[in-house]
Amino acid sequence: MPPAAATNLGYTPPDGGWGWAVVFGAFISIGFSYAFPKSLTIYFKEIQEYFSVSYSEIAWVSSVMLASMYAGGPVSSILVNRYGSRPVVIVGGVMVCTGMALASFGTNIIHLYLCVGVIGGFGLAFNLQPSLTIIGTYFHVKRPIANGLAMTGSPVILSTLAPLNQLLFDSFGWRGSFLILGSIVLNCCVAGALMRPVNKSIQPKTIDETSKCESEAEEHAAAEDTSTHADNLQTEDQSESKGHSFVQKFIDVSLFRHRGFLIYLIGNVVMFFAFFAPVVFMAPYAKHQGIDEYSAAFLLSIFALADMFIRPTTGLVGNTKWIRPRIQYFFSFAVTYNGVCHLMCPLASGYTGLLVYAVFFGLAFGMVSALLFEVLMDLVGAPRFSTAVGLVTIIDCGPVLLGPPMAGALVDYFGDYKYIYYACGVFMVVSGIFFFVMHYYNYKKLDEEHRKSKAMETRNSDEANDSILLLSKEDNISQSDTFLLNTEHE
C-alpha cells in the first residue's frame, strides 16, 4: 500500500500554535458546508405546498446544492492555490448569504434551484475545500487529530440547525427564515478570517527530530478526508514543468488506468445514488407518519449526535495496527452497514422506531464519512491524492444530483416514503458487497506485486554484489601485475 504522506513542502508545519485557531475556523466552515443542505429539509414540506410542486421537484433543491458543492471543488482548489484559503472562504460565506437572501424573494421553485442550489452550493464549495487544504499546511504529526476535530463541525452544526430551523419557521415563515439563515452563514467569513497563511520561514527540524516526527506520523496516518490537499497540489505544482498545460496539472487521466482508483470510483458512483437521500427525506418521512414538526426535526439532531460521536472514533479505530493495513475492508463494512440500516427503517414503527433508526443511521453515515477520503489516499497514494479527489468529486456530481429527486419520484409514484429506504438500502448493500469483493482482489494483486518486487530487488542486489566481487578481484589482479612489473623493472 502507499506510504504515509510526507511533508515535502520545504518547511516544517508548526503542528500547533495558531493552527488550532485555524482548526476552529475549519470546524465552522466545514460544519456549514455539510450540514446546511441537510438542515434545509425542514422547510421542504411547507415549500412544496407553497409552490404546489411534487416530492421529486422539491428534492432537487438539496440535490442541486450538494452537486454544486461537489462540482465547485476543483475550482475552489485552483483559487486556493492562487489566492490562499482566507479570501476564498470569505467569498464563499458571502455567496451563501447572497443566495439565501435572494431565495427568500423567490416566486417559483426554479428560483430556489438557482439561488439556494447553484449560488449557495458554490459558496459552500468555497468554504469546504480551503478548510480541508489549510489544515494540511499547518499540521503533519497531529494532522489526524486536527482533521477529526474539524470534521466534527458537520454533526455539531447540524444538531443545532435542525431545531433552530423549525423555530425560525414557526416564527418567521420560510422566507424570513432564509434571510436569517443567510446572516448566520456569514459566520463563515469570520472563520475564514482566522485562516491566515502558515509561516513558511520556520527553520527545519534536525534529522533526529524529523525522523522521530515521521515515525509518529506513520503511526497516526489515518487522517480523515482531504487534509493533504495542499501538500499534494503544492508538491505537484513545484515538480511539474512550465510547459505542462492547465489540464495536465489538475486532471491526471492516467488514474483511469489505476486499479484501486477504478474500484473506488465505480463503487462510489453506485453508493452516492443512495448516500444523501435518506437524510434529505428523514424529517418529511416522520411528518408523513403524523409526527409533529419539532419531533421530526429532533430526529436530525439525534442523527447528528450519533454522527458526531462516531467520526473521531472511526478515525481512531481505523488507525490501529489491526485495521490500518486492511482499511478498505473496514470501509466496505461501513457501506454495507449503512445499507442494512435503510432496509430495516420501514420496519421501525412509531416515533421510537424512527429514533432508533436515526441513531444507527447516524453511526453508519459517520463511519462512511470518516473513511471516505482516507481510503482514497490509501489506494492512490499521497502524491496523486489531490488529482484523484478532483476527478471523484466531478464524477460524483451525477449521482449526488440525481439521487434525491429519484427518491422523491418513488414517493410520487407509490405515495409512501418506505420505498425510498428500500431502494437506498439495496444500492448501499450492492456497493458494499462490490467493495468487499474487489478490494479482496486488489489486496491479493498487491501482495503478488509486492512479492515480485521483493524478489526482483533481491536478485538485483545479488547481481550487484557479484559485480562488486568481480571488480574487486580484477582490481587485486591488476595491482599484483603492477607490483610484478615494477619488481622486474628494478
From TrEMBL:
Organism: Neolamprologus brichardi (Fairy cichlid)
Biased composition (Basic and acidic residues): 215-228
Region (Disordered): 215-240
UniProt record similarity statement: Belongs to the major facilitator superfamily. Monocarboxylate porter (TC 2.A.1.13) family.
Annotated InterPro entries: MCT, MFS, MFS_dom, MFS_trans_sf, Proton-linked_MCT
Chief location category: membrane
Lineage: Eukaryota, Metazoa, Chordata, Craniata, Vertebrata
Topology of this chain in the membrane: Multi-pass membrane protein
Keywords in alphabetical order: Cell membrane, Membrane, Symport, Transmembrane, Transmembrane helix, Transport
Catalytic activity annotation: 3-methyl-2-oxobutanoate(out) + H(+)(out) = 3-methyl-2-oxobutanoate(in) + H(+)(in); 4-methyl-2-oxopentanoate(out) + H(+)(out) = 4-methyl-2-oxopentanoate(in) + H(+)(in)
Transmembrane segments: 18-37, 58-80, 86-105, 112-139, 172-195, 261-282, 294-310, 330-349, 355-376, 388-407, 419-441
Domain Major facilitator superfamily (MFS) profile residues, every copy: 19-443
GO molecular function terms listed in the Swiss-Prot or TrEMBL record: monocarboxylic acid transmembrane transporter activity; symporter activity
GO annotation, cellular component aspect: basolateral plasma membrane
Protein origin, superkingdom: Eukaryota
Designated name of the protein: Solute carrier family 16 member 7
NCBIfam families, sorted: 2A0113
